[in-house]
Q: What sequence folds into this?
DNA sequence: GGAAATCCGATTAAAAAAGTCGGGATTCCG
DNA sequence: CGGAATCCCGACTTTTTTAATCGGATTTCC
């Protein structure tokens, strides 16, 4: 059970943008650090933009800016935006992939776990990350 | 974010074995139903056996039996056995995959979510599945 | 001894994730 | 105006992971 790197990169990006709010648009160049491929990050920022979490300014001197209040933005907003909603397995989400849906105990249990993960993700806000001790700016 | 089918099949199998406890060894044939490939299930039952959750009897008239108390067996035991412990991403689990470990806020948040998922999985016991309404035996 | 089972490493096939490419569009600035 | 900076975006390739299969070895019952 793994979250993909998309989620991780998405968090990095949002964290960076929140930390640099009010400093004007941040370029892809700025946001990406060692180990984060720029062009891949670009895709992910596209997801975040389409979800309304970041706004962009195109053209020279352009870049990305956070578009929401870090106090109100939960991890779930971010994860859902970059990875899509979590689905523990097909039978738990789409109604028709399994004949047994409705009465299947596995399905029931899956649903319970999914709900619980979502609730936990909603509890954690972007601002909570900002408040974490962090040695230096380099730790984006 | 998806749980693999291994987890699902593992749950099916444990559910089946719990429901047929005391009826002697259940063969792979018995346990697998439509849509669950026998040879794949065999691998998964191997994981469960090595984790001590099922016991086996080899040879003719042999099969699999549940080896634990469904009241004490949590989903986490099962999932960990068949999929390995959950790791949301490398940086959150192995110490040395990232220079920033220790101070990275992303790492912190990842750890929080992982802990919370594990706690939830521990709360749900196999017996809770057995107590779920279930239309018929066929719904293993 | 033969049939019914589990056991197990190796291999293949399919799917998903990660990363790359190339060009298009927009905007600033001189 | 023209060039540089920068986001935009669909398509592609590569890599990794997951799922499934295979073939034979071993054990045990009858």
A:
């Amino acid at each position: 059970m793994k979250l993909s790197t998309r989620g991780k990169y998405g968090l990095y990006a949002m964290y960076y943008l929140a930390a640099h709010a009010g400093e004007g648009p941040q370029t892809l160049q700025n946001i990406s650090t060692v180990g984060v491929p720029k062009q891949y990050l670009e895709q992910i920022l596209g997801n975040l933009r389409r979800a309304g979490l970041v706004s962009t300014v195109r053209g020279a001197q352009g870049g990305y800016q956070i578009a929401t209040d870090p106090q109100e933005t939960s991890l779930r907003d971010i994860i859902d935006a970059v990875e899509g909603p979590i689905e523990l397995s097909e039978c738990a989400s789409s109604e028709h992939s399994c004949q047994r849906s409705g009465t299947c105990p596995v399905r029931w249990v899956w649903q319970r776990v999914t709900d619980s993960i979502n609730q936990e993700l909603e509890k954690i806000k972007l601002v909570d990350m900002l408040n974490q001790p962090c040695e230096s700016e380099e730790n984006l």
User: Anything to note?
Assistant: Chain A has one domain: 5-131. Chain A touches chain B through 42 residues (CB under 8 Å). The first strand of chain A starts at residue 54 and ends at 57.
